[in-house]
Amino acid sequence: MARMISFGTPVNDAERWAFSLLADELPEDYILLTNVEIPTKSGQAMEVDALVIGEWGVYVVDVKGYIGRLDAGLHAWSLDGREVDNSLAKANYVARVLAGNVKHKIPVGVYAPWCQGMVFITGRKGEEIELEKHQGSLSIYTPKQIVAALTKEWGLTAPRKHQVTDTQKELVLETIGQVAIVEQRNNKIQDFTKLKCLFIQSGLEVWQAEYNPGEWTAPWLLKVLIPTQFEDSDESQKHEAQLRTEFQRLQSLSGCSGVPYCAPLIQDGEQLVLPIRMPRGVPLNVLESAQMTTYQLLEILRRSVSGLQQIHRRGYTVGGWTSNCVFVSDMGDVEFIDIKDTLSVSHDIKAYAQGFLAIAEQTKQPRVYQWYRAAIAGETTDLDALRCDLSALIDLGVCDTVPEKIAVTKGAVIDHHFVLEQFIAATQTSQFWRAKHLQGQYQCGVSIYSSVEATWPMLSNIYRSLAKVYHPHIERVLGFGQLPQSEELFIARAWEYGVSIDELNDIKLGQPIRWFTQLITGLQYMHQMDIYHGAICPKNIICNPNKAILVNFGIGLDIAASHYASQYADPTLWEVEGQAEKDLYGLVASFIDALTPGSLKGDLGQTGIIQALDAFDREWFGEALYDVCQKVVRFEISIQPGMSYLELFDLLEEDL
Known about the structure:
It comes from Shewanella piezotolerans (strain WP3 / JCM 13877). This is Serine/threonine protein kinase. The protein is an alpha+beta fold. It has five domains: 3-185, no CATH class; 190-277, Phosphorylase Kinase, domain 1 (2-Layer Sandwich); 292-396, no CATH class; 402-495, Phosphorylase Kinase, domain 1 (2-Layer Sandwich); 499-655, Transferase(Phosphotransferase), domain 1 (Orthogonal Bundle), CATH 1.10.510. The protein has 20 helices and 28 strands. A six-stranded mixed beta sheet has the order 1-2-3-4-8-10, sandwiched between helices. The protein has a six-stranded antiparallel beta sheet with strand order 11-12-13-14-16-15. The chain is elongated, with a radius of gyration of 40 Å.
């Protein structure tokens, strides 16, 4: 794209189209002066359609919008049989005048650049023109050859060919006079000064500019619409409406993080301009995220999702998700410069997740990158959950800048907070340790589970929720996450004294009903929060003389793979039952299994559990409680919202 300086307004569509073509196609080191006047010795000025200062010479270009067949000779021209002016003769004359003016300007020892005339026959925007030259060397060209003639050595008519130096170019500009003033005038729109053209097509231009009202400057983008450069008025009106709509959209989103500030529209009769403050930072596609710390990446994600949420809450969507339209500053601020409002909210979130997935994966935080993967698959649109997770990770300070793989041994520090002190138990896929919280110096338990990548989204939802609620008979979650550079999941929980209900050697009268009542209250509380265990079994019920606690929501000692509680039930019924019904079944079946002597258990299927229940004394159990338990293990109970579990099992009077 050439450096274009307009001294006047094009007088017709042919000139306007020709100048646009030359500005677009000529190299960037070319200078294109349009509608410029060349002074003569007599003081009279001669107007030139275009003056091109190029690599091989200085070309005085006369633009003609002839349509039809042009026969051009050295002395006479005809268009479709009609005599027309010989424009080349005029252009050559002006070129000689310009050459003479330049020679008077040059110092001793400097040669004047070659100046020659040239005619550009445009036709109808490059079409409907046929040129016949009586001499092939005549400098008359159609759009197919004009750029090559201006940029190649063969287009020069000089006997000796020399490239134009920078000094010679400056001499030509000095001869024309006031070029810098005219260029500054052309590049000035109120208090905005155009610096660099970033995009130009038809009548649309995007400029990098600066705002300079006084003693300070600020970078801006100018979206410029020039109605006269469009092919027809309908196209011009369409783009004008789009630019006005964009201004209204940015005004409606004013104050949202992620949305650049825009100034009022400028309309001066010739053009419509939308000034937008230049976004800070660099586009997402050139961001050097590999050099950033985990916390910097998390901050970028948090600010991006906060900005997106604010835009959605105002009733708009981004839509423009190409990576060069999303900017990230050194402080982690994220701005969207192409807010189109063309997508639905769900599709906008999916496009957002695709754009930021690479950064999310770089954090090596499963709670983060699993959300982005799920959003791309269309499985979630919950921006609140993501923002809460990002804030928690940043505020708690639990992320390694360079995560290192942790060997699970005595003395290992998990999540910067928990040091492993005593190994308790293990299976093929899990370990349980007694640990100590480093800062608080209190005991806690840490469970470590292998190969849980596939179930991570479900587990993440459960334990994120558990970390925010409290019930004395539900495990208290202190921490949850994935060990670095591994697929091992850790859960840190408050230390609870006791053993699983099936390992109790001495059960006193009244304890089972008290434990059962406590767990029923905890289970109802969780269900009200839409949190379901899904794997209740004796191993997941920890008892001590005072209370029972339900642990291992969703996972356990090999429960993640087998769903331990489901072994009690008929597989067909288990598949169709609701989550609340499954949890109640698991709880009742676990107590029956733990309290039934081995000789009476039989198999652990549904029939065996029912037979074991039948062996109990109804009076010892309590008639109402016995009947409800029987219905539960037969899946004859349907849980309704708001139902009281204590009332259902006739336990309202029990002492907790």
